[in-house]
Structure formats: C-alpha cells, structure tokens
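Entry — protein

Goal — fold tokens:
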Amino acid sequence: AQPGTDAQTKWPNDLLISGRKVAGILLEAQGGAGPDAVPDFVIVGVGVNLMSYPEDVEFPATALIDEGTTVMPPEFLEGFAKHFLAWTRIWVDEGFERLRKNWVWRCGQVGKEVEVRLANETLTGTFKDLDECGALILETADGMRTITAGDVYFPQPSDA
C-alpha cells in the first residue's frame, strides 16, 4: 500500500484499505509427511484489486484506484516483487518474529471482538495476538484458543 494509506492486515491472508479487502494471498504446499515436515515446495498466489473488484462477495472489497492510487500492473509488480524479496530475506535471516510484529502492528482487529468461522464451528472472542507461527490467539468465553485456519469476520451492530 502507498504511504499514508490506512492499510491493515486481516488474519490470515488479506489486506484491507478503509475496512475493505484490496488483496489476498493463497498458499498451496506439497510434499513432506507428518506434522513437523517441511514441504517440498510452496506455491504463493497473490491477488490485488488494482482497477476493479468483485461486488458479489461476502466481505466488502475495494480497488486501489477507488482509494486514490492509480498504478499499472507492471509498476505494481515491480514494487511488490522488491518488497516481497526484502521481507523474505528478513524472514530467512532473522526468523519470523519481525514479520509477526509488523503484521500485528498493521492489524486493526487485535484487541477487538471477532467472529472466526472454522470448518465445523464458529467462535466469537477477542483477537489477542499471533503466536510464533502466525496462528491467531483468540480469547473466548471458554478460554484461549489457537486457530491455524479459518475466516475472520467483524460482528455487525444489530439493527434492533
């Protein structure tokens, strides 16, 4: 995001501007057996709404152009690649902690009530932090939960 933009991270893999989704990341890993195995490879997919966005989505979306930033795909890709490589080097050289801290600093949901939709249940609680692996730490009425996969939504005030 451009300096001065109110870009925020949304766990686990989205970027918001003005509370609306402008980008998302998907990862697909292959190989490696067992819970502690390292995958043979990871494919990273990144989608960024530069000029338009889908309107028929569950979470509100926006595009960079609608937020006052006009950028063409080639120049966006150049800037993205530069920053992606820089942060990858930090991760390799220093470990995950600096990335985790930066992500949390950019996250607008830390300390707030969120709804986390999992495969078999929906949880409500306070988004406390990210753990050392990037999992969401959620404080629920039943205690702390560590969430490794799910979708985060923000409770809407009731109309009543």
About this structure: Residues 7-106 form a domain with the BirA Bifunctional Protein; domain 2 fold (CATH 3.30.930.10). DSSP finds two helices and nine strands in the chain. The chain has a mean pLDDT of 90. Helices lie at 73-94, 97-106.
